[in-house]
Write a structure and sequence with these properties.
It contains 9 helices and 4 strands; from the N terminus they run E-H-E-H-E-E-H-H-H-H-H-H-H. By secondary structure, it is mainly alpha-helical. Strands 2-1-3-4 form a 4-stranded mixed β-sheet, sandwiched between helices. Strand 1, helix 1 and strand 2 form a beta-alpha-beta unit. Helix 1 runs parallel beside helix 3, helix 1 packs across helix 7 and helix 4 runs antiparallel to helix 6. The chain starts with 39 loop residues before the first strand and ends in a 55-residue tail after the last helix. The mean pLDDT is 95.
Length: 338
């Protein structure tokens, strides 16, 4: 999620730009960036669904000690993502005030937007990658030497073709579809995107009616990618992005599926509804010029019983759930269901 020209959303045609910096951090260091504990810093916003994928994967895989994490202020200014949540407004590891500084060290005068998630090389302060589609897959497959004991296989080799197919459909119609609806500048474009969102959600609901997870009987990257949109649906996409044919809470299967994931360690304990709502409603001034943040929806339902375990499935396969959230990474009470 970038911070370039946020005021323009709602006034110009929306196109999601491709990741400009697509270097990979790999076990063999083929791009010059070998996997190495403590060398890199993951920069995220808890508001951003694309960044939240990386936050969830990092926690499920137990990479907290190997890959440190910086959390940006959910409300950007004209210089984009900033570290105003940290003392003195600087990231304590990178020593910078704005993520743009790491971009500048990689490519001076880079004309594109400054987006999260981003992985920064700590020794040089240079951006390594902002390839949100690839970062989590590499965490699952290239960082295995640093995974915790009992880490799940989020991208199992035998299921990758099916996972990729499901993720492509979810991306086009749901993950990106809500943005195409929300930032549409013409009625027809909005209606096409909104219809596509709900058409795909109905198909996903049918798929999940008799199975606990999207692919196989364990959690995979596909579930992470759908979850980060579903968890934001009623809070921001239903109203702010006008995806309002029905609420997630009104769809029995998808609502139960989303609650099941939310209550699974590594998912809901990374979600900050306060950051989510403030970002969307205060930053997208082209859509919400008053900047007023709604009081609702009531978050209590996220903790209600879901009964999805009756469908079977083993969340972590032969592995185990992650341990407690590290003290410095816990979501503040105002961002969590009571």
């Amino acid at each position: 999620m970038g911070g370039d020209g946020n005021r323009g959303y709602g006034h110009r045609t929306f196109h999601r730009s491709r990741s400009h910096f697509a270097d990979r951090i790999t076990a063999d260091g083929r791009d010059g960036w070998p996997v190495e504990a403590g060398r890199y810093r993951l920069v995220v916003s808890r508001a951003c669904p694309w960044a939240s994928r990386a936050v969830i994967a990092r926690r499920l895989l137990g990479l907290e000690d190997a890959l440190s994490m910086a959390v940006a202020d959910p409300v950007q200014d004209d210089r984009s993502w900033r570290f105003t949540l940290d003392p003195d407004g600087r990231d304590p590891v990178l020593g910078i005030r704005f993520l743009a500084e790491a971009y500048d060290r990689r490519e001076a005068g880079y004309p594109g937007g400054v987006s999260v998630p981003a992985v920064v090389d700590v020794p040089s302060g240079r951006l390594v990658t902002n390839d949100y589609q690839r970062i989590t897959l590499d965490l699952a497959t290239q960082w295995t030497a640093l995974h915790r004991d009992g880490a799940p296989d989020l991208y199992p080799a035998a299921l990758r073709a099916e996972i990729d197919e499901v993720m492509a459909e979810v991306y086009e119609d749901v993950n990106n579809g809500v943005y195409r609806a929300g930032f549409a500048t013409h009625q027809k474009k909005y209606e096409e995107a909104c219809a596509g969102v709900f058409r795909r959600l109905e198909l996903l609901g049918e798929r999940l009616a008799g199975r606990r997870y999207l692919v196989g009987d364990t959690l995979t990257e596909a579930d992470i990618r759908l979850f980060t949109t579903l968890v934001r649906f009623d809070a921001v996409y239903h109203g702010h992005f006008k995806c309002n044919r029905w609420k997630l809470a009104e769809h029995p299967v998808l609502w139960a599926y989303a609650r099941d994931l939310f209550q699974t360690p590594g998912f809901g304990d990374t979600v900050d509804f306060d950051h989510i709502k403030r970002h969307y409603y205060q930053v997208h001034s082209g859509i919400n010029p008053t900047g007023i943040v709604p009081l609702g929806p009531d978050l209590g339902g996220w903790l209600a019983p879901h009964h999805r375990a009756e469908l079977g499935g083993r969340p972590f396969g032969d592995g185990t759930p992650p341990g407690p959230v590290p003290a410095g990474e816990r979501v503040a009470p105002r961002g969590r269901p009571a």
